[in-house]
Amino acid sequence: MSYASARDIFPEDILEIIQQYIEGEYIYIPKKEENKKPWGELTKSKLELQARNKRIYEGYLSGLSTTSLAERYYLSPKSIQRIIYQKKNE
């Protein structure tokens, strides 16, 4: 996310209206709903987490304990249990 000067973006009359509500501060203008992308769509994060969770579940099925999986993947035992539960129900 980058910042831009409102003076460079808005016409003077709109800038004056905005200044009635806020001036000299940073504001975030969210994207329109139809322009939003689902989480992980722009990076490989979603695919990497899915692959990791698959490996965790396979480790569980092969007999590894939730504690050892938690240590191996640097997650809490509760997180490992949640991943196993989700994978069982897929």
TrEMBL record:
It comes from the Bacteria. This is Mor transcription activator family protein. InterPro entries: c-mor_Regulatory_Protein, Homeodomain-like_sf, YraL-like. The lineage of its organism: Bacteria, Bacillati, Bacillota, Clostridia, Eubacteriales.
